[in-house]
């Protein structure tokens, strides 16, 4: 969800107001993704690296998260959306942890879509932890045992990864899970992203030929002997 800060700077308003606008985009995109039949939507809300931002910005982001959870709670329940956290919420302020626990608990039975919020999340740390878990469980290292030890256990791999804000990098996000993801980079700043922009990204995804190592002819079922 990149671009909140630049969106605010362009309007000569505080970065926090950019995050406020970004939270509105979150609501719109969650609703649209659910309408489009997306099974799992993951939003990178706060990385392990984001702690290095000014304390005032971090505090406002956490307050915004709590407000978001309070206002969206009913929508999530009514739409059968299960909230899950990827990352270690233990470092978040108590109020944020309590709000997350409450909404994750009350939406747990949601079957229409899973909304993952990546919070205090970093993919390399997740992978290291997963490997330690595999060792502790005395399991062999296989794709299945590592999958099962990730925050995303029981979830499908990432099909489409969208990055807003013009940068073209993964920034320590779902490195294992996105091994075969289609990547879409858009210049749009996150507060300007919305239902229509999501539709465009899904249309772009639908155009891609996903070969998973095979040839195009094999995919088309042509005789390639
Ligand atoms: C990146 O933009 C955005 C974040 C670090 C925070 C994202 C948070 C929200 C959209 C709102 C709170 C979250 C929820 C789920 C309600 P940036 O600040 O790095 O922008 P820049 O790239 O323009 O500097």
Characteristics:
single chain; 225 residues; alpha/beta; three-stranded parallel beta sheet; two-stranded parallel ribbon; 14% strand; binds farnesyl diphosphate
Question: How is the topology of this model organized?
Answer:
Blueprint: H1 4-10, H2 15-35, E1 40-47, H3 55-78, E2 81-86, H4 94-107, E3 113-121, H5 123-136, H6 143-149, E4 160-163, E5 182-185, H7 195-207, H8 216-219
Helix pairs in contact: 1-2, 2-3, 3-4, 5-6
Bound molecules: farnesyl diphosphate.
How far apart the termini lie comes to 46 Å
Small molecules (ligands, ions, cofactors) in the structure: farnesyl diphosphate
Question: Shape from CA axes?
Answer: globular
- What's the total helix number? 8
Classify the oligomer. single chain
Give the low-pLDDT segments: none
- Largest sheet, strands/sense/barrel: 3 strands, parallel
Q: What string gives the helices and strands in order?
A: HHEHEHEHHEEHH
Strand content: 5-15%
Strands of the biggest beta sheet: in what spatial order?
A: 1-3-2
Radius of gyration: 19 Å
Q: Could you write a compact summary of the structure shown?
A:
By secondary structure, the protein is of the alpha/beta class. The protein is built from eight helices and five strands. The structure holds farnesyl diphosphate.
């Amino acid at each position: 969800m990149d671009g909140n800060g630049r969106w605010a700077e362009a309007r000569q308003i505080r970065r926090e107001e950019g995050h406020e606008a970004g939270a509105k985009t979150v609501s719109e995109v969650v609703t649209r993704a659910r309408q489009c039949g997306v099974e799992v939507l993951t939003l990178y809300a706060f990385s392990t690296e984001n702690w290095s931002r000014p304390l005032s910005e971090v505090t406002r982001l956490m307050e915004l998260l709590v407000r978001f959870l309070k206002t969206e709670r009913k929508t999530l329940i009514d739409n059968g959306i299960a909230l899950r956290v990827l990352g270690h919420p233990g470092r978040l302020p108590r109020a944020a942890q309590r709000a997350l626990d409450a909404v994750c608990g009350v939406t747990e039975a949601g079957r229409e879509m899973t909304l993952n919020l990546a919070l205090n999340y970093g993919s390399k740390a997740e992978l290291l932890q997963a490997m330690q878990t595999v060792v502790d469980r005395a399991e062999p290292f296989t794709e299945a045992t590592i999958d099962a030890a990730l925050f995303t256990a029981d979830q499908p791999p990432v099909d489409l990864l969208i990055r807003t804000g013009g940068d073209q990098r993964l920034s320590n996000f779902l490195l294992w899970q996105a091994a075969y993801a289609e990547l879409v980079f858009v210049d749009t700043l996150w507060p300007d992203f919305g239902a229509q922009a999501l539709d465009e990204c899904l249309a772009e995804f639908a155009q891609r030929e996903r070969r998973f190592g095979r040839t195009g002819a094999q995919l088309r079922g042509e005789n390639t002997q």
